[in-house]
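Cross-check.
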Amino acid sequence: MTTALTAFTVSSRTLRALASTEPSPEGTRLVRDVRRSKRLVLLRAVLDAAPGGPSGEAADHWALLEEAERHDAGAVRDVLHYPATGVWAEETLRRLHASYGPPPDLGHLGALAVAAALRAGIAFTHTLRPQQGRLVLPTLGLLRPDRPGPVALTERSWDPGDPATLPLHALPGGRTALDDLDPYRAPGPAQPAPVRPARRLTPKGHKRWDTQWSGALTLLLRYDTVRAEETGHLLRSVVPLSGGSRSNGATLPAAAGSVLARAQAPPALAATLVHEVQHGKLAALADVLTLHTADRTPRHWAPWRCDPRPLEGLLHGAYAHLALAGYWQRAALYGARGAWAQHARIRAQVAAVLPALQAHDRLTAAGREFTEAMAAAERAMDELPPPGDQHTAARRAVDRERRAWCEAHPELAPFARG
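Predicted model, tokenized:
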């Protein structure tokens, strides 16, 4: 199983295509390739750091993965590159190198191997130890053994019709899963409220998500077919957020290919998907290309938030909102109610911070080219402006918000100038 990280070269054409936020074959290919290479390097690091190294218990799990790969490489690839697998791998590597804290969950590597073997359709016998009375098999679901202690699993162990089996819920219309089962679907056991995953949903909850997801995909296909296709290519799972979450959505770098989202009406869910997919794209680009060398001090004004943001946060926010401005412009041209107002407001917000981004002295050459291409994409929206004075009115409103923010943060006023 190859684990060497590819030496990525990002062409100017690909960089500018990604900066525009508009989907492109080369941009999508780069994002997917970066995610895959990073995941394989991470998994290899886990194996090398595990007790016993290449000859320990973890090696037995890895051997089953390699056997499954020889029969069905695609099935194994989907298991290893499933978003929750990345969360587990990062957490496990941290625990392996920590001098204190909880032990690493190396048994989960066995669960990955069994899931891959089941999906590859090979004959095998592999022993796993249930956690809290259940065995989670990534991309498949979970098993609830009828007795405590280690369980010897075979190719006949997975039966979706068995009451002891709980399959992962597949959302309609594609390969995206609604993951409310995997213990690693979101990093850490105690996430802040905005990104806390929901507990396992009821059948009624699944049905509600099916309806909202289908509606959101219908809108994406109607208003912006290319973005709908990009969502299908780059989004492998959606993790429901808890009801008390303050955010509509979130993207966490460790779970590449996943979005955390609240259950919401289809128009809002479609916008959330557009927004969050951009964060995933930019995170992948940042893994192979340095766009800036600024620290993480929160000092910049971002009109979509009340709190000051570090340059990284400002760049991510502007990038995701640039995509939203484009999406709402297309929706408006199709005739969606209220879309022009959404487009004008969000575009004005992006336009207000682009000068500060472009002028930042900690941008690299690639970062300057990236922000210049973002600005070009924003200016290109002039070709199809909203009716009346909506664009001008939106810019005036954002300017008022800027002044109010500067009054509330006088020490940071220099970082809010356009």
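The first strand starts at residue 125 and ends at 128. Confidence is low (pLDDT under 50) at residues 1-5. Passed to J.P. for a second look.
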